[in-house]
Amino acid sequence: MALADRDAITVYVAQDNPTAAIDLDLGFETKAENARLRPKLCEAGRVKGTGQTVMRPNSASVNRVQGDVVEVLRVLNAAQHWP
Q1: Cβ atoms 64, 71 nearer than 8 A
Q2: Does 57 reside within a domain?
Q3: Domain count, the chain
Q4: Is residue 83, in this structure, part of any structural domain at all?
């Protein structure tokens, strides 16, 4: 679901600003990699057993951290409700 979320957000932004969409997508990739390298830095999530990483001011990823593994469950825009 996270990849579909990421694609949908990027496509939506690209309708108005393709360059911003590319920058946004690269930012998602960088933040996900940072979460993978430092899983203990993920903030506590709204749902028990999850964490979150602020990707940009208006978007965040919902993660599940198990040991050294970070699974990105969703990438959400601030306008979306979670859970």
Answers
A1: yes
A2: yes
A3: 1
A4: no
CA distance 81 to 6: 16
Q: What is the mean pLDDT of the chain?
A: 85
> What's the Cα-to-Cα distance from 11 to each of 1, 4, 14, 16, 34, rounded to whole Å?
15, 10, 5, 9, 23
Structural domain contains residue 82? no
State the CATH number of the domain containing residue 65.
3.30.2310.20
- Report the relative pairing of strands 59-66 and 69-77 from DSSP bridges: antiparallel
* DSSP 8-class letter at 36: H
> Model's pTM, two decimal places?
0.76
pLDDT grade, residue 31 (50/70/90)? Answer: confident
Assigned domain for 46 exists: yes
